[in-house]
Amino acid sequence: METNKDKTNTGRKTHGYLRLQTKLAISFSLVAIIASALLTFALYLTVKTRLREDIRHRLYDIVNIAALQVDGDEHATLVDPAQEGSHAYMRIKRVLQNIRDRESDIRFVYTWRRNANGRLIFVVDAETDPNEISHLGDIYDSAEPSILAQLATLDHTAVDEKINADRWGVWLSGYAPFYRSDGRMEGILGIDIAASKVLSYERQFLWVALGVFCAPIPLVMALGWLFGHKLAAPIVRLTAGSKHIADGDLSHRVSIQSNDEIGTLAKTFNEMTQTLQESITRRDEEIVNRKKAESGLEALK
After folding, report:
1. 127 in Cβ contact with 133 (< 8 Å)
2. Domain assignments of the chain as residue spans, ordered by start
3. How far apart are CA 14 and CA 136, in angstroms?
4. Domain spanning 45-208: which superfamily?
């Protein structure tokens, strides 16, 4: 019949077993999840950087080739806002619109020229919306001063390193100079890709990365629980064995077959228990023999 003491010991064993297994399972799961999160984050940053670099290279090629299609000599004749709508203006405008319409993610295509004060002014804009079009002679001053300074002296094809914002929205822009027939630089062709397109690519991969990260979490937790159970089991058996010894059951032995420190500890524990049991047995025998001798002595007296 199980006593209250036995029930208490059983409860302690179960409680200790669950507590240790849970700790080990949580520790393993957390380490695995954190490692997976770091790897996923590093992968996301790498792919995000790669996506932007690919888009920048693509935009570089587009604007570089497109600049060759602008007639610099004809563009040089457009110096008066009243010329907006002229044959020369509309011919260049159609060229810019063809450049824009060949790529689905290109939003704005336009040309700039430096005025006498060194400031950038719009010349031809492919846009037709009256609320968004930049007219001939309009000064471009929406960008940051550092960007304006770079554009004012630009003499080579370039693409923004990062996404920039102006009054028209948020963009990734590319620029390329174009020239007159005598070799003099006439102006700058600008092409804007809406940042929403760039960011949509990044968001799509972010969701993929999150899916890859979250999918194995249940498996990681299950493995953590199994590993926690496996690692905790011999320690729990040692704990239970020590309680048996503490309760006076010196015949109890711990059965752990393992070729590691836990196995060595179990072997040492059993040897210690065996030695203690033999010592107590010898002590009891000595006590019994002493009592017999004392009884014989008393009988003689």
Report:
1. yes
2. 45-208, 220-301
3. 84
4. PAS domain (3.30.450.20)
